[in-house]
Amino acid sequence: MSDLQIGLLIVGGAVVAAVLVFNWIQERRFRKQADAAFQMPVADALMQDDARPRAMHERVEPALREPVLGDDETETGEPHVRFDAGASLADGDADVPVNAVPAPNPAAATPSERRPASPPVAAPAPYDELIEYRARIGCDGVMANVFADAFNQTRTLGKAIRWLGLPVGAAAWEDVQPWRDARYQQVAVTMQLADRNGAVQEEQLAALCDVLQAMAQAHGLRLACDDMVDALERAQAIDRFCVDVDVLIGLNVVARGEGAVNLTRIVREAESCGMVLGGDGVFQLLDSRGEPLYALCNHDAEPFAVEAMEGQSSQGVTLQFDVPRVPDGLKVFDGMVAFGRKLANETGGILVDDNLRPLTDTGIEKIRNQLMHIYERMEARGVPSGSRRSLRLFS
I want to staple 86 with a disulfide (CB 3.0 to 4.6 A). Which of 123, 256, 310, 336 is the partner? Predict the structure, then answer.
């Protein structure tokens, strides 16, 4: 082999080695860039939302809309007005005999088998951001009894309060009960913004935050309260909407002329229709949830008795229909009208409105059209009649 050939071999080998070294350096540099780009930042789970710059938070105007849920009413908002309930944990495994399975050999386990199991991913607290104000508490495994005093104090603030807790190591939220032996990593306390007594007041929200702040300071907990001004604006908007659609319809069965209606017959008809007599002396037709569809009460001061005396009479009876609390309201209203006409026929009376004017088919259809308009408004605002959110607002 000549000197030229040897020189060419040496040069060629040097070029190949240089290419390999260059490729290795490039690959290492790109790998570092990729690791840096996809590394997850570490943040406090309680304060993560608040840690972002304010410019990243977009203002959400009050809007009544139904939350997308997978529970019993396609609601659970109850709470977007968001009810983001976490998935339930599976039941524990059944007991297994000690000798049923040989003990694993740690040395033989693969790297993936030796890794600790990933902790369950916790869902956001299931609160309804349309009709509730929220305060979040970071607990780090504090016992439930720490919340006992604040729990009792918040019950006196005049609006519905919910305490929701995420137990340590769990993914599903639950109602906090201070007397239980439980530890929580996060707690959310909510106050309902409106009901039939009106909108929440600034003093009530401030009192809630003061109680929770005192508790947080006493036990070294972290507290983050939602914006109070925004909550008060939402409360006023919700209250105005509720006033507009909060309607109670009454139909009356009265005697013709100077006569009276036979209460014994009316009681029998109510019982045969499936109505239940409550402790207040009012008959109610209940749905599958135990919620009233419509009620039947006596015109006279004396309420209905469990056993009506034969021949007992009254000036008349009233059927009442609480519009926003009844699901499938048009169907229920039609059923109440049919029942009222049946009572009138059985007692020789007449079906009239609250002004004692006889109810004709035209009058009934006019009421139905008004109901249809109300229910369309409720659907458009995300508060379907008879839904869990509607039952909370109209309570």
Answer: 123
pLDDT tens per residue across span 236-277 = 999 999 999 999 999 999 998 778 888 889 999 999 999 999
Is 201 found in the same domain as 55?
Answer: yes
Q: Would you say residue 183 lies in a domain?
A: yes
Tell me whether residue 100 is in a domain. no
Q: Record the tokens describing residue 340, joined without a space.
A: 């009222």
> Quick one: 261 and 369 in the same domain?
yes
- Report pLDDT digits (tens) over 163-184: 999 999 998 999 999 999 999 9
Last residue of a domain, one of 245, 264, 279: 245
Q: Measuring CA to CA, which residue among 287, 262, 271, 269 is closest to residue 339?
A: 269
Residue that is last in its domain, among 218, 245, 272? 245
pTM above 0.90, yes or no: no
3-class secondary structure per residue, the chain: CCHHHHHHHHHHHHHHHHHHHHHHHHHHHHHHHHHHHHCCCCCCCCCHHHHCCHHHCCCCCCCCCCCCCCCCCCCCCCCCCCCCCCCCCCCCCCCCCHHHCCCCCHHHCCHHHHCCCCCCCCCCCCCCCCCEEEEEEEEEEEEHHHHHHHHHHHCCCCCCEEEEEEECCCCCCEECCCCCCCEEEEEEEEEECEECCEECCHHHHHHHHHHHHHHHHHHCCEEEECCHHHHHHHHHHHHHHHHHHCCEEEEEEEECCCCCEEHHHHHHHHHHCCCEECCCCCEEEECCCCCEEEEEEECCCCCCCCCCCCCCEECEEEEEEEHHHCCCHHHHHHHHHHHHHHHHHHHCEEEECCCCCECCHHHHHHHHHHHHHHHHHHHHCCCCCCCHHHHHHCC
